[in-house]
Amino acid sequence: MLSLQDVQQAAERLSAHVLNTPFVESRTLSQLTGAQIYLKFENLQFTASFKERGACNKLAQLSDEQRARGVIAMSAGNHAQGVAYHAQRLGLRAVIVMPRFTPGVKVERTRGFGAEVVLHGDTLEDARQHAYALAEAQQLTFVHPYDDEAVMAGQGTVGLEMLSAVPDLDALVVAVGGGGLMAGIATVARALRPQIELVGVQTARFPAMVNALRGTQHPQGSSTIAEGIAVGSPGVLTRAVLAERVDDLVLVDEGDIEQAIVMLLEIEKTLVEGAGAAGLAAVLKHPERYRGRKVGLVLCGGNIDPLLLAAIIERGLVRSGRLARIRVSARDVPGMLARITALVAEAGANIDEVHHQRAFTTLAAQNVEIELVVQTRGPQHIDELLSRLQAAGLEAVLQGHH
User: Fold this and answer.
1) CATH of domain 321-399
2) Which positions fall inside the ACT domain (predicted)?
3) What are phi and psi for residue 341, nearest 5 degrees?
4) What is the 8-class DSSP label of residue 169?
């Protein structure tokens, strides 16, 4: 089984090739959670995720014959970029197989690192089978995203850096998809600090490792904002390491992850993808478990689609009461809309959208229904606005609030 020595050797191979990313305390998150929270900024790697560590460690150990032929990987995400980037740096041919539905930006970014991208199949499984077939036909070395000792050892260097920076950590909370990152980190942590608590985090929509290790039968979902850990079946090698070395696995919901993304953006001014926020989501969900302890979290990746990010930020504003939807019913007389907008202005709220209509309403025909989306300072401000509208004799209700 993977050993501390494997990871230490990987660290020597990687020292000139990947960033030893910052590992620093977040004072604000520490205050909010009651734990001492340290963040490992793997989203600052050149390809914006830890995945390039494992890829680089694997590529650095190829024989001359393997190097001459090149490598192949299957990935629609961060692993693709990690393999492509380090293959380019080492002057190796890299073929990346991606499913046909992969967003164009990911395809272009991977091509930008000099890889040959092959789009094949409608599912990750189809793409994987095709990659194995190509590897066979063209004698390419397959670089697995997690189920490979060299890849696991490379990912484990994250844990080595964390514990060398802050040796007295009490707990590590790490996202688990295929389990490569956690397998590597757990191997290091168990050897260097046996009493540390190791907690893996999966999204409730993709609980494959939880099911495998716990014998539970949580259903598998189809999509999640944490696509980096949306793995349908856990790794064979990683599963064995996690079974032996990890204390617990927990599940977080989509809302928990969204909230963690917005908090990291607002508080730390740092952008993470869904999987990168899973660790913080787990601590926010069970703060009592970590209170008063030193906790290390890995911000494992930062590749998030800008449109998805925009939606998450807006939903976060709704959740925190800074964006509210209010329905006002009034008599349909000239100047009514102006009166309502004036009242909103007096209350110090800003109008984002106005929807004014007569047909789709159950009110009397002489009435009009106006829907406003307003920017406010928070829940208290919303209440002030509603009471101001009601005091003016208008019917005003808050809609669709969390």
Assistant:
1) 3.30.70.260
2) 325-402
3) -65, -35
4) -
Q: What is the pLDDT of residues 224-249, one digit of tens each?
A: 999 999 998 889 999 999 999 999 99
User: Residue 58 has what pLDDT?
Assistant: 98
Round the average pLDDT of the chain to a whole number and report it.
Answer: 94
Q: What is the amino acid identity at position 358? A: R
DSSP code, position 229: G
Tell me: the pLDDT tens digits for 327-370? 999 888 888 999 999 999 999 999 999 998 766 666 666 788 89
Domain 16-49+157-315 class in CATH: alpha beta
**Same fold yes or no, 16-49+157-315 and 321-399:** no
pLDDT value at residue 402: 47
Whose CA is closest to 42, among 205, 175, 168, 209? 175
What are the CA-CA distances from residue 37 to residues 21, 31, 155, 173, 174 (Å)?
Answer: 16, 9, 21, 10, 13
Paired sense of beta strands 323-331 and 395-399, if any: antiparallel
User: What is the rounded distance in angstroms from the CA atom of residue 122 to the CA atom of residue 363?
Assistant: 49
Residue with tokens 């164009």: 104
User: What does the pLDDT average to over 16-35?
Assistant: 97
- Residues 400 and 402: their CA atoms lie apart, in Å, by 7
Its pTM stands at 0.90
Contact 120, 113 (CB under 8 A): no
Instruction: Take residue 43 and report the two structure tokens written for it.
Output: 């989203």
Say if residues 228 and 272 touch (Cβ distance below 8 Å): no
Say what percent of the chain tops pLDDT 70: 98
Statement: 51-142 belongs to CATH 3.40.50.1100: yes
288 by Cβ neighbours in 10 Å (0-12 / 13-18 / 19+) ranks as: exposed
